[in-house]
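Reading a protein record of the kind used here takes little practice once its layout is understood. The reader may check this reading against the record printed directly beneath this paragraph.
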Amino acid sequence: MSDLNPAIERVTQRVIERSRASRQAYLDLMDREAERGSGRRSFGCSNLAHAYAGALEDQAAITAARGPNLGIVTAYNDMLSAHQPYGRYPERMKIYAREVGATAQVAGATPAMCDGVTQGEDGMELSLFSRDTIALSTAVALSHDMYDGVALLGICDKIVPGLVIGALRFGHLPAIFVPSGPMPSGIANKEKQKTRQLYAEGKVGRDELLASEMASYHSPGTCTFYGTANSNQMMMEMMGLHIPGSAFVQPGTKLRQALDRNAVHRLAELAGNRGKALARCVDEKAIINAAIGLLATGGSTNHAIHIPAMARAAGIVFDWDDLTELSHAVPQIAKVYPNGPGDVNQFQAAGGMGYVIGELLDAGLCHRDVVTVSEGDLSTYAREPGLDEEELVWREIGESGNTEMLRPASDPFQPDGGMRLVTGNLGRGCFKSSAVDKARWTVEAPCRVFDDQHDVVEAFKRGELDRDVVVVVRFQGPRANGMPELHKLTPPLGVLLDRGYRVALVTDGRMSGASGKVPAAIHVTPEALGGGPLSMLRDGDTVRLCAETGALSTDADLDAREAAPDPKTHWGTGRELFAMFRQGADSAEKGGSAMLAAAGL
């Protein structure tokens, strides 16, 4: 057992000190909620009758309070492949609950939108704020105050962070996240990537592109690239909120069913255990572990927004300075597509999260002593689940099964975690250096300024970007248009890189968790709306972006200029209904949340 890395210890203690008052206020609230107890003990008969009326098979057991009653919050829909398997989960989970003398009810459902469907489309402008909506939906579901524990069914981009935020406001209850697993692997990732770039260059048509995409995203289960959805599952393992090893077991398998059953049995066992309540599991060390896992595996840049937001819901203050300092201490020991050769199924086969956690623990690179939903500390997550005939067991993993995807901490892919803060007179932003060849870490070139991502694609098609250029896409922040992902820009900018130009992207918007090889400063704050520095840039200004020195700057005299006018808010696709979220949103570094800002968290 190694001592904890001093940089990780330093960041942890800084976060604890910074959060002392807000964390204590949160824990005091949770203690008051726990003392008040479940409403089932004090509700009137009419209230209870309403709650029991639909539970035909369990009415007698719930009425007699024979055992714990578990609430299920589900993000099921069958348009989103990752959540399609959840359709039959509630009926199975009720059976599993009865096996141990408990009952279960679906407390409520949350929306679950797919960023893959909405990429480059109007609906993407609702994506970030769907996280607030999911948190609010979770709160509504649990506000009936009928439950002794919570099972949270969600996987994808904004859904897991939203469930975490919402459930933390009921953190006096134990909670377990129940994933459903990735779809089987489709076509080779390089083949898919090649077809996308050929389409961007106009060398293949839409039919060929659609056939390629359908061969990749082809069945129920999570998309198999290591984007935000699968990074979510990684974080739940690092925080100890899954049954150990649950993240990447495929749906429809006996092992998946055994893990789901175990989750329900364990949740029933935890009901009423205040020491294992969600508020005690999600502490400063768990948040630090989530960030460490993100860095060690080269996970999604979206979590530079989600981790601070989840932390705030638990009274914890975590910022990009913390993330950057951790990044300098944590080596990258996993490479998964789009940053490596294989997808999450191959990652799992090579050792998966059990290997990653074991390596980090042995090297003193994460906190072992976190409160988990398992019977032990984080070391119980350094194994892999399996079946011994019908019995669920956990086995030691041993060495990496594929050193092109997983390496020991003593021989990492790169010595740091590859998530860097860049700062300067253009603001503060995030640079995912782990995804970019080091020769491309520094770009200094005249900029071309756009207020809309679609205009970038059109300029590319006209050949106007065939040169060294820093593409600036502004008015994409939370308050401007909901901070959409700009993943559609990756293929054309990637083509420019392949043509030999020095190209970078600077934006106050987001990039997908599947962002690839293009050097980019993203999440830039202050955002352009309201006079942020990006609103002062003009075409031809020289912009410097450097992951090595942490520079994000221009030589233009911004103080001598007026800001570009704020664009008008778009209507349609329901965007007008989210005006209150845009108006109230805070900065990306704080999580880009209107709900948390309004709550004073």
About this structure: The chain has 23 helices and 14 strands. The chain has a mean pLDDT of 93.
